[in-house]
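Comment thread on ticket #2218

A.B. wrote:
> Attaching the input chain for the structure job we discussed in standup.
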Amino acid sequence: MLDSGKSRAFVENFTGQWLDLRNIDATTPDARLYPEFDELLKLSMINETESFFAELLNKNLPVSNLIHSDFAMLNSRIAAHYGIEGVTGEEFRRVSLPAGSPRGGILTQASVLKVTANGTTTSPVLRGSWVIKRLLGRPSPPPPANVGTIEPDTRGATTIREQLAKHRTSESCAGCHRNIDPPGFALESFDVIGGFRDRYRSQEKGDRVDKRSATGRSYACAARSPNLHFTDVTVANAFCKYIHYLWAKGIVEGCAAAQYCPGASLMRNAMAEFKANGFGLPLYGP
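C.D. wrote:
> Ran it. Output below, let me know if you need it in another format.
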């Protein structure tokens, strides 16, 4: 398949659908708060994620790299955005991440961080919901009809963490927020264009980012604390989406999709296939 001349279109379409990269233009960052955002940075965001996924396919790398990798695919523009030195030119290439870097895997890529935020603020609810839907394949049910939306108090009277803590005291809300909030808060160290931050941007000084998880434990970002169960479920879900995408495009037969993703047996069969394949995505087609 990679030699068919259609691999680029496959990578663009698959990542565009699965990771919502097609929604990259759904919001426009506030130019007063994010003056560094421009068309070149936006295109570099998308190309980074596409190049990263293509690298996994081309080198048959373990899909666990989706969650935690020691490298990134960078060009000079996205490297500067991440504060990584020594990368020149517009061409994307594999770059080893420096020790202590908050980057690694798709969760810390600017494209994903942008499509899971709006142009001004980030929301642990939106990002957390995206993670459990897109990466874990376990979308949350819609909130009860009598529950209002969560919005940061712009007057500074309460924080989003305090509002969500109150939400979790409600029996009708606690079940979903128990799953949504932890990955959402894990990504609060990243702003609406994927920059790493210690403070929220505002026209004034901006509040300091609270880098505790929903349970109060401290960590800087998701990439520094990879959870093995989280990684396993994500790998199996990614495998399932990959096989079904190939099936929908007529590259594999429907029986292959059913074999690898049969509902409740998804984890067992997917992980067995990955192990046999060195935890890389299998390739099909001419």
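A.B. wrote:
> Thanks. Noting for the ticket: The CA atoms of residues 12 and 62 lie 20 Å apart.
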